[in-house]
Amino acid sequence: MNRNDLLKYFSSFQRINVFSHDKDTNENNLSPYIWQVNFNRPEKRNAIDKPFWEELKSTFETLGQSPDCRCILLTNEGNVFSAGIDLKFGMQYFSSGNVNEPIEFARKSVFLKGYINFLQECVNSIEKCSKPVIACVYGGCLGAGIDIITACDIRFCSQNSYFSVKEIDIGLAADLGTLQRLPKVVNSNSWAREVCYTARNFLANEV
């Protein structure tokens, strides 16, 4: 797809704004080959529901194949980069069905395995993207937000940014990539385990 086709394709997205800077709107003198992927659900603190995941995966798969894209900036609208998985959306999957019935429990387990695999594929689409992806974090980055930024090639953040591997607070594992990628990003298995076990907030200057 050329640039105009890409803009037309992305115009239907609701959770993510995708655009490049042309001569008329290029206030920061960015190359038109640099595309900005902007999380645009500030009223929900950029919490990630199923449409959000689907748009994320489609965005990076599409831009990764486009010759009109040479670099991707991942940004956010509002004061929170991402609050992680939308719990209202997530609980529809994690609490549905009667877990006391063996058949229902088995079916639910199979369904959840497929669901988690889908989420992992969405995050992996960032890492697999053939173009360099730069995360520009402003504000809080929690839970699945850390899964996402650790899949990027480069990470920058503002002074007011804070981070938390929040999954343990709701009885989940950070199994969308944080457990595998964060120790490599910070070059410390011990520190990464500590923040994953405690779910405490930490700042960039601690890493």
Nearest-angstrom radius of gyration? Answer: 18 Å
**String of helices and strands:** HEEHEEHHEEHEEHH
**Overall pLDDT:** 89
Determine the fraction of residues in helical runs and give it as a percent range: 40-55%
N/C terminus separation: 39 Å
User: Strands of the largest sheet, in order across it?
Assistant: 1-2-3-5-7
Tally of individual domains? 1
The CATH topology: 2-enoyl-CoA Hydratase, Chain A, domain 1
Helix-strand category: alpha/beta
- Shape estimate: globular
CATH C-level label: Alpha Beta
What CATH architecture do you see? Answer: Alpha-Beta Complex
Overall description:
- This is Enyol-CoA hydratase.
- InterPro entries: ClpP/crotonase-like_dom_sf, Ech1-like, Enoyl-CoA_hydra/iso.
- GO terms for molecular function: delta(3,5)-delta(2,4)-dienoyl-CoA isomerase activity.
- Belongs to the enoyl-CoA hydratase/isomerase family.
- The chain is of the alpha/beta class and 207 residues long.
- It has one domain: 2-enoyl-CoA Hydratase, Chain A, domain 1 (Alpha-Beta Complex).
- It is built from 7 helices and 8 strands; from the N terminus they run αββαββααββαββαα.
- The strands form 2 sheets. It has a 5-stranded mixed beta sheet with strand order 1-2-3-5-7, covered by helices on one side.
- Strand 2, helix 2 and strand 3 form a beta-alpha-beta unit.
- Helix 6 crosses helix 7.
